[in-house]
Design goal:
It is an enzyme of class 2 (transferase). This protein is an alpha/beta fold. The chain has a single domain, classed as UDP-N-acetylmuramoyl-L-alanine:D-glutamate ligase, CATH 3.40.1190.20. The chain is 38% helix and 21% strand. The strands form 2 sheets. A 6-stranded mixed beta sheet has the order 3-2-1-4-5-6. The structure holds pyridoxal-5'-phosphate.
Amino acid sequence: MKINTTFRYPVALTIAGSDSGGGAGIQADLKTFSALGVFGASAITSVTAQNTQGVRGIQAISPEIVEGQINAVFEDLTVDAVKIGMLHNREAARIVACSIDRFCPSKIILDPVMISTSGSKLIEDETIEVIVKELFHRVTLITPNIDEAVFLSGMPIRNEEEMEIAAQKLLALGCRSVLMKGGHLEGKEMADILFTRDEAPLRLTVPTVDTQNTHGTGCTLSSAIAAYMALGKKLPDAVRSAKDYITAALKTGADVKTGHGHGPLDH
Ligand code: PLP
């Protein structure tokens, strides 16, 4: 029997937190990679005791094991793209920065996760400074929602003009590109806008999907962008495709009952 040893799937690595309820974090990332035909590897930074109703507890993984997971993956697999999600403490953020310098992945999507939909803080305050200083300039794209962008830019964001001013502030902090998610702004039409240093802003609108099942939307979007980049798409196309993927997953999951709170997307 002839065994084909030359074929390999594109590989994406998620460095993020675990959600025991299966809707967000590592679990959402791996489902997304798999659904898009990308082999998913993971480095878990923290474990949450969580379900669709909320986060009950957070345990950070030891820095040695976070580093060990990242090293083990990079020293064996060819990683085509990286997604970075929940980084609970400073040590994890610093390890990720050092790992980027060591292994030089060229496509890195950072979701600056701070607070869950259910209102739980997923990050220690001092970690945010390390993420801004050590990670922003090392990654390809950051994907803040409005609340995160307000916090990171230090200004109110009430409309698209303010989204742009805030994005310029984040670019000035060292980011190469910012996908600002307008989903939390008032109104039926929600725009996500991709700001880069050289190109005109790319405005992406889709009608709001009327559903409670939004748990893990941010995780899924950033991992879909990473997956499409692992598959070879350039950033704007990867963002467009990821947005379509999210919209489809929100629509098909809109009336599905999983748990008693904010259910997950369907993918
Ligand atoms: N739990 C984990 C482990 C996460 O990484 C995230 C988001 O990135 C969340 C929960 C929050 O997800 P959501 O705000 O969609 O509920």
